[in-house]
Structure formats: C-alpha cells, structure tokens
Amino acid sequence: MNTNSHIQHGLWRHPAAQQADFNDVRLWIDLAKTLERGHFDAMFFADVVGLYGPVNGSYEVNAREGLQIPSNDPAVLLSALAVNTEHLGLAFTSAVLQEHPFDFARKVSTLDHISNGRIGWNVVTSSLENAARNFGFDRLMEHDERYRWAQEYMDVVYKLWEGSWDDGALLKDKVSGVYADHTKIHKINHVGEYYQVEGPHLPSPTLQRTPVIFQAGSSPAGRAFAARNAEAQFILAPTPEIARTTIDETRALVVEGGRRPDDLQFFQGLTFVIGSTEEEAKRNEAEIDEYISTDGFLAHINLGLDQATGTPLDPDMPLKDIKHEGGQSHTAWLRATMTDREPTIRDLAKITARIRGRFVGTPEQIADHLAVWQQAGVDGINVMNWTIPQSYELFIDEVMPVLRARGLAKQESAPGTLRQKLFGRDQLSESHYGRQYRGAFGDRS
Ligand SMILES: Cc1cc2nc3c(=O)[nH]c(=O)nc-3n(C[C@H](O)[C@H](O)[C@H](O)COP(=O)(O)O)c2cc1C
C-alpha cells in the first residue's frame, strides 16, 4: 500500500525498512524494477479511502503508527511505474464508493494505454465508516447491499470498456482525414438504481479493454460477486485445507455461472521470514517480533472497539456477539480454524498479529511449503512484505531460484498484457459476464 504501515504494523521502525519514505516515488520505481528483475507477474497495491476505527473515536493510534495515514493514491503512482517498467503487471485497489464509474473507467483506460495493457483492478466495496462519510453518506451501507451496488458499478464500466467502442473504430487515417469512425462509437445509455451514464466512453479501447479484475471478499455475497466478475481472487486462508475448500466452493459458483473453472485464479497472501539455516530464520523472526505493534494490529482489525462509543470491548468477548457491517472474512476464517470453542477478540488479535500467512524457514523449506499450497489448488501467491524493499529482494535473490529449479515459478516474465501473462489472452474470455456488452449498443443507440 502507498503508505507507511499497511499490514505488518510497527515494522516501519525495523532498520531495513524504507517504507517510512513512501512519499518518495524513487522507492516505488526501484521496487517495481526489482520485481520485474525477479520475474513477478504483478505488483499489487491495496488501498482504503478513510480511517480505520469508530466514527467518533480517536485516531491517535492510526497517526502514531502511520497506520494507513498518511497515504497516497496508488492509481497516480501506477502511471510513474508504468513508464519505468516494461513487463510488470500493475494492479491497484479502488472502491466503488470513491469514484464515479464514468470517470473511473476513463482513468483506468488511460493507465492501460500508458502501460500497454498491464493494469489490474482490485474491486472493493469499502467496509470503513469513515470512508462512507468521506463520500457523502451518513453511514456505511449494509454489507450485501454494497455488493449489489458494486454489481451495477461493474455493469457501467463493462458497458464503457467492452461495448462503447467497436473494434476498428479508431482509424488515425491521415489520408482520408478520418481520425475515428463515429458509426462504431456508441452511447451506452445506462439507467440503473445508482447511476445514469450516457456515454460514449471517451478513451478508445486498450489492449485489454477491461483491466484484469481482482477481488478479495470471501463472504457469500463476496464469493457470488467474484464468481461472476473476478478473474483473480485474493485469499488469506489460514491453512491449505481451508484454501482448498474456499477455492472448490467458489469455483463451483464460477461453473454454475457458465464460466470455466480456471477462468478464476486464486492468489494466497503469504509472508516469509527467510534464513539460510532454520536457526537464522528464527533469529530473523525474533527480530521482526520485537517491532510488531499490538496497538497497531488491534486498531487495524477494526473490531476491538465499540463502534458507537469508541471504547475498547472486553477482549474475552466472543466474536459472534459483535455486530458490525464491516468485512466478515477474517471472523469466518477464524471460526473455521478454531473448532473447539468460539473465538474471542483476543484470539483474533493474536492470530492476526502473529500467525496470519507467516512462514519462517530456509528457501528449500519455503519451496516445500509452497508446493503444498499449490496442491491445495492455489494458482499463485501474493508476497506480503515486512519491510520494503528488503522482503522482496530476499525473496527474489534467495527463494525464487529454488522455486524456478523446482518448476514452481516461471523462468521468465511473459511479455504482453497482464491478462496474457495470467491467462494467455488479452481480453475477457467469451464466457465472462462483461462480454455480453460487446457489440450490444450498435443498433440501439
Ligand atoms: C488479500 C486481501 C487484500 C485486500 N485489499 C483490500 C484493499 O486494498 N482495500 C479494501 O478496502 N479492502 C481490501 N480487502 C478487503 C476485501 O475487499 C473485503 O472487503 C473483505 O475481505 C471483506 O469482504 P467480505 O465480507 O465479502 O469477505 C482485502 C482483502 C484481502 C483478503
């Protein structure tokens, strides 16, 4: 995330950490080049558009920890990264709340042109009260309604990206003096519950038309949304077995919706503490643990405080007694892992701070571990960092050669668009929901 402290709170103070200087574009350009050198498919930015915590609560912890405040817009940053890289996919998060779909579609097409088709979009609905208030709402919309809203947002952007311009509309013909053929450019005339958009889309189609669609919610509504729209889903399963169940269930929905099972790929978030021996890895882990901020983790999970008053909840309170409209994946996963009793707030803080996605070991042990995730059906991993850029430098220099030798990672960066790298095609598959809008507006408009 384009901020100081994204997930691993407190680590910005680690001697190797440079993320405190995230305002400096060189940090990100250098990191993007490192990832490209390491043959990563993509660099992904998370984002939020508000503060964590109760609406009238203090944000002293957030500011003290640099916990997602201050933060900068990842989409703006991507244009700098696009011109400094050639192969790396560039994915960012944008919530349906934060931008009108007409303008958002235009911004993404512009980025996709600048990068020659390397853009991915992580669609989120935003579960932060403060974010809702930043965009003119009194309160956060109810969980499942947020997904209905998101679906209409998707319809608008698909209509613009897929349907507004036919192939061959852009001529750039200096001899005839025709730049673009208006008969192949269509208004979309969208009228829905949340938006009215006439069109046409202002940019001409990009190599991908629609950016690669990422999604990260695992609630029933989130999975249904992913099954219809997403091409890649981020998961944070606590074990490979739980990943397998999540993947199988979501893939079944994908197939029910008429898509092929591998039209949706799954990326597990993991984070590594690497050592050349097991002892060294454990020493590195102990060093990391010295910097972890429990205050930061509790403020981040957004559940440790009463949402009305901002006062701390009893840490022994069972999770099932907490009423909230925020994200539900974390609590659902914790319930699935802790089968002997109902987990509490204290359990959640502990697992989030200490266990989630962490693997400690030598490069060979990491490769063994990743083979298990692969067997569970995971298509790829999202390497979450402790320190920028060191977490990635170590992974690329020490782990990637072992993964390549074992056939667990690609030998080279595939050229071309991000969708080409992941799926071997530039545009949405024929059976994707968004493709229904291709050619849909010609006669009607
Ligand atoms: C790996 C991962 C990355 C995520 N990135 C973001 C993000 O950048 N911004 C955001 O608002 N939510 C992010 N989320 C939260 C999800 O989009 C979603 O809101 C959350 O998982 C709750 O959705 P659910 O109730 O459908 O499970 C992320 C979740 C995961 C697992």
UniProtKB/TrEMBL annotation:
Superkingdom of this protein's organism: Bacteria
* Gene3D superfamilies for this protein: Luciferase-like domain
Please provide, alphabetically and separated by semicolons, the GO molecular function terms listed in this UniProt record: monooxygenase activity; oxidoreductase activity, acting on paired donors, with incorporation or reduction of molecular oxygen
Write the record's keywords in alphabetical order, separated by commas.
Flavoprotein, FMN, Monooxygenase, Oxidoreductase
What SUPFAM superfamilies does the database record attribute to this sequence?
A: Bacterial luciferase-like
Q: Where is the Luciferase-like domain?
A: 13-379
Q: Give binding positions for FMN.
A: 47, 93, 143, 147, 218-219
As for family, the record states: Belongs to the NtaA/SnaA/DszA monooxygenase family.
The protein here is known as LLM class flavin-dependent oxidoreductase
